[in-house]
Amino acid sequence: MFLSSSPSTVLAYDTASETYASHDYTQDSKDISISLKEFVDALPPILCRLKMQERKSFQDRVQLESKRGTKEDPVTQLFSRLDLNEPELTEYALADRTKNYTRNLVATDNETFTLLLICWNPSKESPIHDHPCDGCWVRVRQGKIEETRYKVNEEMDSLEITSVETYEDSREVSFINDYVGYHKVGNPSTTTPAVTLHLYCPPFQSCKVWPDPNRASRSSKVCMCNYSEYGDSRACDKFAVNMI
Q1: What's the pTM?
Q2: Less CB within 10 Å around the terminal CB: N or C of the chain?
Q3: Cβ atoms within 10 A of the Cβ of 101, count?
Q4: Is 95 within 8 Å of 111 (Cβ atoms)?
């Protein structure tokens, strides 16, 4: 709905041009909410500008990676301003009681980002999984979610829990990438569904999952599949696991 296939707006993430990355959409106040369309329009130039800065030197890359997911991160700042109460998001919130959760594609340019609205049934969760990308940003639109993070203990060949956090504030942004660790996400409520918005930069087509945290060396590779795309339901029965 918000995507263009024109050459001026679709660019390779790792070969961003100076012209494309020079546009600045972050001059207005960080307290002002933005619409879904404004977010989708503003995000790719920011990502491309960050990618260009990252390629300047090793020090620049280390500095950018240290800020990623923090309040100093331009992506986090922009994502936190997205108005999650916007009625337009409701058309993407397609749930299915027969599944643990549903992945609903809201927007993507297939190069710099993918934006998903995920509907969680009560007491359901994802498998433990990684993120083969620069990072995953998450906000809660409805209800609450519980995130459990893990790190690998190579000596014990296990995944050890490093933290368990509950999120329910719609303005709070959770961030994770593989430098931080792996995680699983779930709905801790036994009665109330939850809805979360997930931003992945750049998109990826598969990831690793760990069915058993006591066997860290035995992961499985799963492919991404969406329950719906742009508000149109297309249930995915090809894969046994719907991954985040």
Answers
A1: 0.86
A2: N
A3: 24
A4: no
